[in-house]
Amino acid sequence: MRSFPRLAALSTAALTVLSACRDTRAVTYGGPYGDLVGKYVPQVEKATKLTFKTPPKVEQRSSDEVRTFLEKEFNDNLPALELEGAARAYKLLGFLPDTMDLRRFMLRLLGEQVIGYYDPATKVLYVVRDTSAGRAALVEVTVAHELVHALQDQYVQLDSIQKQRDDNDRLTAAQAVMEGQATYEQMSAMLGGDLGVRMPGGWDRVREMIRENQTAMPVFNSAPMLLQETLLFPYLSGAEFMRRFKEAKLGRPPWQPLPASTEQVLHFAKYVAGERPITVELPPLLTGTKVYENNLGEFETRLFLFEALQDLGTAARSAEGWGGDRYVVANLAGGAGLVWVTVWDTPMDAGEFRDAAQRAAQRRLGAAGTGTPELKRFAGKGRAVEIAAVTVQGKPAIIWTDVPAGSGTRLIDAAKVRLTER
Question: Which of 28, 36, 262, 263 makes the best surface tag, with the fewest CB within 10 Å?
């Protein structure tokens, strides 16, 4: 689920280390927060080993102006039809309540989360104008974080990354690197040295602090698990990726190249080895009308299993070995249906996912399955789920089909699924 709100918890988590900030105003900047920009520009440059090609610009905006801008950005990056299709997919996969208005909820999250943001279109760092108590410290951390984004944008097109379509997994991976770098380097700059070394308790403690502070925010705390975890992923897993990237001393920026999948973010060795994900191309539907098509990636596949089984270890193990996936939402005579094809590195990986998926289907529909381990059907609560183990171009694959009760489960011809390296 592509995420756009910037997490205010990052600011709150970093407040505990403000006393360690180094005052190195080597350059004077005018305008709002010029003192903070002058303070953090050299520290951000030192942490990233990159220099600003042009001076960063900072402007103030009212809360209403920021909200209007962010709503426009949200609508531009997630058009209504695309958002509706994604919402239907996630409801069918058990991530979201059937009655949830996803757009309305995400806009509420935007209002709660954002203190400041960098806009790649205008090349300006905007900070919300607010004089309330305690805001100054939050603004300081926000400026440090967003300066990293301003620097990134002078070397890689952030706007083009954000506007990617039809590959949720790749977009999530790219966001994880850009937000992960901003998070890691922002905190390192404020500590006056490498975050993993200078922070008491290291990165594990930082992760705990971000989660603890985020759950104190009422809208976020009320969000379904999918939204919470996909909002946190770019910051938590992205910063962990950056920690490993810096330890590896690869001598290049983390976007040369960007990870091609959340699998590469979660498993740094696969990024270094250049293990590419597989693009799964689905054939035309045999019945019904296509509404929406995209992928989950290893990270959201893990979330899918955790949502159903509530067992983090099983979810992580059963999603590992993911090679690629693609799903399509269809309008059928009896209602919405979904077919989801996952491809795996080995038959053992496919078998472990298949077993976990079968337990997930049984829990969701409240009924035991019938058939063989290779083709099992579940029926209950007005739905029918079929889980089939197949081979696609020599690769082990699992097809999950979810349709209204009474509908046929053969939505695609498995023999016509095509695989290519992404």
Answer: 28
373 in Cβ contact with 389 (< 8 Å): yes
Asked if residue 354 and residue 247 are part of one domain, the reply reads no
* Domain boundary residue, one of 250, 273, 296: 273
Q: What is the pLDDT of residue 94?
A: 97
For residues 290 and 256, membership in a common domain is answered with: no
* Alpha-carbon Rg for the chain in angstroms: 22
- Give the count of beta carbons closer than 10 Å to the beta carbon of residue 208: 12
As a whole number of angstroms, the distance between CA 342 and CA 302 comes to 12
Residue 225 CB partners (closer than 8 Å, separation 6+): 95, 303, 306, 307
- Is 284 in the same domain as 369? yes
Residue 1 domain flag: no
Co-location of 337 and 388 in the same domain: yes
* Structural domain ending residue among the three candidates 211, 240, 273: 273
Cα angle 228, 234, 240; round to 5? 115
pLDDT score, position 212: 75
Percent of the chain clearing pLDDT 70 (strictly above) = 89
C-alpha to C-alpha distance for 292 and 106, rounded to whole angstroms: 19
Domain that holds residue 365: 278-421
Distance CA 334, CA 407 (A): 7
CA–CA dist 202, 215 (Å, integer)? 21
Least confident of 4-13, 47-56, 228-237, 405-414: 4-13
Q: Is residue 3 part of a domain?
A: no
Token readout for 209 is 């602090």
| Residue 380 and residue 350 in one domain | yes
**58-82 average pLDDT score:** 86
Let me know whether 50 and 153 are in one domain. Answer: yes
Residues 42 and 180 in one domain: yes
Say if CB 272 and CB 252 are below 8 A apart: no
Q: How many CB atoms lie within 10 A of CB 133?
A: 5
C-alpha distance from residue 358 to each of 152, 185, 368, 372, 374 (Å): 43, 42, 9, 11, 10
Residues 61 and 202 in one domain: yes
Q: Is 323 helix (H, G, I), strand (E, B) or coil?
A: strand
Query: Alpha-carbon distance 400 to 268, whole Å?
Result: 28
Q: Which residue has the tokens 């705390």?
A: 221
On the question of pLDDT at 361 being above 80, the answer is: yes
CA 350 from centroid of its chain's CA atoms: 24
Question: DSSP H helical segments within 163-221, as ranges?
Answer: 168-191, 195-198, 202-214, 218-221
**Number of domains observed in the structure of the chain:** 2
